[in-house]
Amino acid sequence: MISNVLLYITAVLLVITYLYAVIAGNPVYSALSMGAAFFLTSFLFVLLGAPFLAAVQVIIYVGAMLVMFLFIIMMFDLNKTSTGTVRYKPSTIFSYFLIMVVLLIAFFMAKGVLKMPEGFTIVGFGSAENIGFNLMRYYLLPFELASFILLVGVFGAITFIKKRDKE
Amino acid sequence: MELNIVRYILIFPLLGFLVNGLVGKRLGNKAVGWIANSAVFISFALVVYIFIQLLSMAPGSRLITDTVYTWINSGSLTIDFKLMIDPLTIVMLLVVTGVGFLIHIYSIGYMHGDRSYSRFFAYLNLFMFSMLLLVLSSNIVLMFVGWEGVGLCSYLLIGFWYEKDSAANAGKKAFITNRVGDYGFLLGLFLLASAFASKGILTLDFTTMAAHISLISPQILTIVGILLFVGATGKSAQLPLYVWLPDAMEGPTPVSALIHAATMVTAGVYMIARMNFLYVLAPEALEVVAIVGGLTALYAATIGLVQNDIKRVLAYSTISQLGYMFVGVGVGAFSAGIFHLMTHAFFKALLFLGAGSVIHALSGEQDMRKMGGLKNKIPVTHAVFLAAALAISGIPGLSGFFSKDSILAAAYASGHTVIWLLGFITALLTAFYIFRLIYMTFYGESRLDKHAAEHVHESPKVMTVPLIILAVLSVIGGYIGVPQLLGNLVGWHNSDIFVNFLAPVFRTMPKHEMPVSTESWLMIGSIAMAILGVFFAWYVYIKSKMRPAEHAAESLPGVYRLLLNKYYVDEVYNAIIIKPLLWMSENFLWKIFDVRVVDGTVNGSAQVTQWASTKLRKIQTGDFQVYVMLFLIGVISVLAYFVLR
Amino acid sequence: MSYQLLVILSFVLFVIGMIGVAMRRNIIIVLISLELMLNAVNILFVSASKYMHTLDGQMFVIMVITIAAAETAIALALVVKVFKTVGMVKIDDLKKLKW
């Protein structure tokens, strides 16, 4: 019961932080709001039985990505450059929402109410041990591919930033 | 018995091909030669090992298989990449790897200094691989892969000196002529497959087919047999598809020896022997085989009488001898045909290599009219050449005598008197043209060019040693198949080792017994023919110094020219097939179909694309958020379709 | 809390992120919105993982996080490059990519 209440609270907070991150005029606020959203997500993960992912979420998203964003913003003083806020008229936003609502309604028409299972039957569900076991056993190829993609990402980033010799 | 080392027979030549083909240029000629030779030698050693294994098994159960993997698994049809060794296979394997290895060694000397040394050995190894695959395969589909592979290698090696127009054309001719035959082979294959499939047998394994062959009606078997034989006429250069083989002599001489004398051209004979279970039930098809074989034997021998190019004489001789083999299998004496295949591989490879040695000695001269008197200048070559010539003429005691005699005896015994007569006359002609070659090349007075005469030299050891080994084989190779008639004379029971060894593989035709006296007379007759041929050649070319030949040519100009121009077959083919094809290709396929239809379609689609692009590029505003929005609309439409459906 | 509510939550979050990508002018905020979209998907994966009692969803989250990290690195590198060449991070100014 308590976890249910916590879930609702987290969900509401998530929506708020998301909205602020998207609306904020200053990129720094936006980035910080994103960090908050990541923390809340991590909390959500704990409630949903994914403790390992919760840790990963904090380490990678908050520890690495958020810092990277902030670093870039600070380095180039991007928060001072006036870029305006929103590009499109509210009517456009409204039409977007309309589409989403239509889809959501359709989704709920299609399925009945699906209850979340209460309590865990599997011991250590979502623990680091289980995840690692799965990763090395059934997801070895995707895992290797993912590592390869990271490598490509590193190379890509370096190539973009590197100064060409001729210039 | 399942034996997993069989596959390595195939793997080593393939490795040799890959190494030499990919990095051969950088390895240097010495390494290339070593790699190619050791690859073939390892295969040969493995074959010998398996041969010993096979001998230790009971005669009735000599069968070694090796399933490498499932090659085709389509619907209910399953075809394994499976290798099989039975007595027939092992004979072919020993011939292919043994003679092939000797020719590989010889090639080191012969190709010495050639620009494309590594390419040559790469092709040669690829050929060995394909040929071994053809021989080893346990089903007809895999066999067809090898069948096509040797055709490809033949093409590559005939056109090896592709800078020469004639070589390139000869390669194309060989390939296209073979395609005609292969078309027949494929049709036969499909017909056979569908015939078996309609009886619920969804595999084309030789053993399975042999077990269930009687389910299929004799009419279909006859058609299949003839269609497969069409393939064999292409590959084994029989009438009417023999035309490529004489031109194939444009290739390097070791290639002529290996591919166009000893191994590849005998693939057709092997195929028919392998499919003996089918042919035994299709006597009409066998009849066709025997008739075509007999006619080809005589026909090619007559052309061989007047040719002046040393290699061309041997080429026609090969066609003629292949005809013999087809007579052998055609009259149901499969082991006799295979026996002749083996002895022929020895002496014909030797003849070609010897001819190569002569050509090598004369710095590339191939015209026999410009040779003569070489006996003392290249003694080793002369000696081995003489041995091979005696063998092919059928002089008693040498290998050719035993094999040729057993074919002729079988032909006569089975009641094919006319075919026997064809073979009998051919025996005379064979002895004549081969000794004509010997006398024109090695005896009489020298007719060499001044330039060539100064450079005459015996070939290096690396070439003569294989020659000597082959000569020994040509002389003694026949003693594994001594006819029982002669065996009885010296009290040797079961002297026909070869036939007994192969007997479990072949289905027997109705046996025709022949009185001993008839067989003896036949044998004496063919010996007389051989000696008569040699004598005639001696009389014409040594005693009378070619005068009778010139006289004959003058008094019968029509016949002489007909023979010299090979019955004008090339010209006839040119007029009735090639010319109309070219005409149609140019006037219809090129000027109408290609220009209007093909080019029109391509250009039209290009124009449509261009027009559409000029219109559509307006959408590309360069604003990525517009792209995002369009993308989202697309995604939502797809989602909406699946959700609201 | 039912599965649907979690699905709706991730759906809503995803749409918010999408609006950010489609409508903001500041390239940094666009990137932040992109990350938020990925995060919304992660929430869906984890919920499904719990609902279906398999770890497969969580496996996918690991993959998504990997991709997100690689993507952010490259995207920020691009931003740096763009800023150095154009001196702006306004999307309106980056319209060279057209006919």
Describe this structure as you would to a colleague.
The complex is a heterotrimer of chains A (167), B (645) and C (99). Chain A is mostly helical and 167 residues long. Chain A has 3 domains: 1-84, Up-down Bundle (Four Helix Bundle (Hemerythrin (Met), subunit A)); 89-115; 122-167. Chain A is 72% helix and 0% strand. Chain A has helices spanning 2-23, 27-47, 51-75, 90-110, 128-137, 140-161. The longest helix of chain A is centred in the middle third of the chain and has 25 residues, at 51-75. The mean pLDDT of chain A is 79. Chain B is mainly alpha-helical. In chain B, 73% of the residues lie in helices and 3% in strands. Chain B is built from 27 helices and 2 strands. Chain B has helices at 6-27, 29-55, 87-110, 117-136, 140-158, 165-198, 206-212, 218-235, 244-247, 253-262, 267-274, 276-280, 283-304, 310-330, 334-361, 379-393, 399-413, 417-442, 450-455, 461-476, 484-489, 497-502, 516-543, 547-555, 557-564, 569-616, 624-644, and strands at 64-74, 77-85. Chain B has a two-stranded antiparallel sheet with strand order 1-2. In chain B, helix 14 (310-330) crosses helix 17 (399-413) and helix 17 packs antiparallel against helix 18 (417-442). By secondary structure, chain C is mainly α. Chain C has one domain (3-93): Orthogonal Bundle (Helix Hairpins). The longest helix of chain C has 31 residues, at 56-86. The termini of chain C are far apart. In chain C, 53% of the residues are buried. The mean pLDDT of chain C is 83. Chains A and C meet through helix 1, helix 2, helix 3, helix 4 and helix 5 of A and helix 1, helix 2 and helix 3 of C.
- The proportion of residues in beta strands of chain B is under 5%
For the record, the CATH class of the largest domain in chain A is Mainly Alpha
Count of helical stretches of chain B: 27
CATH superfamily of the largest domain in chain A: NADH-ubiquinone/plastoquinone oxidoreductase chain 6, subunit NuoJ
Number of strands of chain A: 0
Uncertain regions spanning at least 5 consecutive residues of chain B: none
Mean pLDDT of chain A: 79
The number of helical runs of chain A is 6
Domains counted in the coordinates of chain A: how many? 3
Task: Give average pLDDT of chain B, whole number.
Answer: 86
